[in-house]
């Protein structure tokens, strides 16, 4: 069967380069995800969501305020810090705390960003798209031709 469709060598080279960049970006995203470079905690099981009661609330007047909370984990009552402000004493909150710390720093469960099974996958997809966009921009810069020369000026008449 004769092949009537043939790519010119220049187009085949650009197609192969684009496919190689796509493959490289996917491989880099998988490697970054495997080694924990995508922002996911290496030990996601080291955090647990619990109900906590505010012992001492802090006003939201300045940055870096930490409230004191009391929570029960594994049948043992513990004290911890909450990276929040503006809560009343004896207010009950859902917080995420570390399981391996004696005095843990808790985060409000609703405010924990990137926690979930879709967050890491979305980060991987965004990394691949950013790599493809950057490679495409690099190819565009490489392919640009020099600016056209200005038209010749008309001869002067006396």
Describe this structure in words.
Helices cover 34% and strands 23% of the residues. The chain is built from two helices and five strands, in the order αβββββα. Strands 1-2-3-5-4 form a five-stranded mixed barrel. The chain is elongated and about 95 Å long. The model has no long low-confidence stretch (mean pLDDT 77).
Give a quick precis of the structure.
With 158 residues, the chain is of the alpha+beta class. Helices cover 34% and strands 23% of the residues.
Helix and strand layout, with pairings?
Blueprint: H1 9-34, E1 47-56, E2 67-73, E3 76-82, E4 92-98, E5 104-108, H2 117-143
Parallel strand pairs: 3-5
Antiparallel strand pairs: 1-2, 1-4, 2-3, 4-5
Helix pairs in contact: 1-2
Instruction: Provide the gyration radius in Å.
Output: 29 Å
Q: What's the tally of helices?
A: 2
Helix content: 25-40%
Give the percentage of residues in beta strands: 15-25%
Unreliably modeled segments: none
Q: Spatial order of the strands in the main sheet?
A: 1-2-3-5-4
Ends distance: 71 Å
Overall strand count: 5
Average pLDDT, to the nearest integer?
77
Helix and strand composition category: alpha+beta
Globally, the shape reads elongated
State the order of secondary-structure elements, H for helix, E for strand: HEEEEEH
- Sketch the major β-sheet: 5 strands, mixed, barrel
């Amino acid at each position: 069967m004769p092949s009537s469709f043939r790519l010119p060598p220049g187009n085949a080279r650009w197609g192969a380069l684009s496919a190689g960049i796509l493959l490289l970006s996917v491989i880099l995203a998988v490697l970054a995800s495997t080694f924990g470079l995508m922002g996911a905690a290496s030990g996601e099981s080291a955090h647990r969501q619990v109900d906590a009661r505010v012992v001492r609330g802090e006003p939201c007047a300045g940055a870096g305020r930490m409230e004191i909370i009391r929570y029960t984990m594994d049948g043992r009552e513990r004290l911890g810090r909450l990276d929040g402000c503006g809560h009343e004493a004896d207010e009950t909150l859902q917080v995420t705390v570390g399981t391996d710390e004696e005095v843990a720093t808790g985060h409000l469960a609703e405010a924990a960003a990137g926690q979930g099974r879709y967050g890491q996958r979305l980060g991987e997809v965004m990394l691949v798209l950013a790599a493809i966009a950057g490679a495409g921009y690099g190819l565009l810069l490489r392919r640009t031709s020099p600016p056209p020369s200005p038209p010749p000026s008309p001869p002067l008449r006396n």
